[in-house]
Amino acid sequence: PMFKLNENYLQLNQSYLFSKITKKVDDFINTNPDAEIIRLGIGDVTRPLPATVINNMHKAVEEMAVKETFRGYGPEQGYGFLREKIAEIDFKKRGINIDADEIFVSDGSKSDTGNIGDILGDSNTIGITNPVYPVYLDTTIMRIGKTEQIKLLVCNEENNFLPEIPTEPIDVVYLCYPNNPTGTVMNRKELKRWVDWALSNDSLILYDAAYEAFVNDTEVPRSIFEIADAEKCAIEFRSYSKNAGFTGLRCSYTIVPKALKAKVQGGECVSMNMLWGRRQSTKFNGTPYIVQRAAEAIYSSEGQKEVNDLVSYYMNNARAIRNGLLAKGMTVYGGDNAPYIWLKCPNGIDSWTFFDELLNKCHIVGTPGVGFGSAGEGYFRLTAFNSHEKTEEAVSRMNTNL
Ligand code: MLT
Q1: What share of the chain is helix, strand, coil (3-state, %, to 5)?
Q2: Which of 16, 17, 18 has the most ligand 1 atoms within 8 A of CB, as the residue to mutate?
């Protein structure tokens, strides 16, 4: 008999959304070689890495060249020097009690949100918003197939693109705030309702906070652990990609609180922190030493300032796009506490038609809302991660040509 493949993969969309867009744009460039394309599609940053990050990384590279300071395998969970700074500056300083041994350094939130299913049972019902960052849905399908267990939580204009608390039983829910793709945020009260729901239903929240640095509003929590007792029902994912420019360098971390326990058959309670540690030490040999030194630099006072400057730079772009579209009378979400702007396609056209229109008339690349799920049909996402100059140029082209 022939070997078998994981047939769940056959239930996925043919290609990952951003690969499909790249292909479409390449085709356009082939036939329009002189068009000056402005990319507001994939959320990839454009500013170089901060100077302190580069300096620390240089030092680490030199250490690797000398016998006495060379490093081989590091701790799978990440070096203490980084985990301790994360605990201190990202959490304790903001009044949140997270310890270094609850932090797992990794190479990106895509990896961790995609892999977390390894420690979850296959019989869970999984809540996934629609629209959604495709990784949560695709990796769930890879693992359990496109089954009835996947419950889509529709986000639309009626609920301001924020999911409602489920009325049917859901064991695990992925939430991402500030949201990719809609740019919407949950305030403290709204997030507390989710935490209370999870606690009273013995459910788990997988909270992707990759965009927390972009929050301006003090009513909007930057971590789910700002909400009382969330450490008993949530895992949080954090990334250096968007705030510190690490999309190419790769570094992130995940918080699995020690208070987070799951009951197994027989009633015994098992620590999810222990289980994720077991998973990581088996399948992952850690983020490179030099990259962790690069991330460490972010926590120096100079590094913190540089990161704040990067975030402000991109948020100025977000404001420019948001205001430009609003001035054209368009319906717009996000862009005030998030680097994504979610717009309603004009004149009732669908997402891919608007994609083509924007590419043909303005030479701008964006992301069709429907690529994030059926509820995104008729919507479109623009990112704030290009340069000021190109963003201003894009706003002016949309103003004139749309
Ligand atoms: C996006 O455009 O949605 C992001 O770049 C995806 C990611 O961070 O993986």
Answers
A1: 45, 15, 40
A2: 18
Report DSSP letters for 177-194, one per residue: SS-TTT-----HHHHHHH
Q: What is the rounded CA–CA span in Å between residue 138 and residue 96?
A: 32
Beta-bridge partners for 239: 252
Q: Each residue of 156-167: b (16+ CB within 10 Å) or e?
A: beeeebbbeebe
Residue 313 has pLDDT above 80, yes or no: yes
Tell me, letter by letter, the H, E, C secondary structure of 105-125. Answer: EECCHHHHHHHHHHHCCCCCC
Distances from the Cα of 83 to the Cαs of 278, 287, 326, in angstroms? 18, 12, 42
Q: Which of 22, 42, 132, 212 to mutate to test the pocket of ligand 1 (most atoms within 8 A of CB)?
A: 42
Q: Whose CA is nearest to atom 9 of ligand 1?
A: 110
Provide the token pair at 379: 């919507």
pLDDT, tens only, 38-59: 999 988 999 999 999 999 999 9
What span, in angstroms and rounded, lies between the C-alpha atoms of 71 and 173? 39
Q: What is the pTM of this model?
A: 0.96
Residue nearest to atom 8 of ligand 1 (CA): 43
* DSSP code per residue over 68-108: TT---S--TT--HHHHHHIIIIIIGGGT----GGGEEEES-
Q: How far is CA 342 from CA 6, 334, 345, in A?
A: 35, 6, 9
Give 18's DSSP letter.
H
Question: If you search the block for the tokens 């799978």, which residue do you land on?
Answer: 76
- Closest by CA position to 171, among listed 153, 191, 151: 151
Calculate how far, in angstroms, residue 42's C-alpha sits from the geometric centre of ligand 1.
6
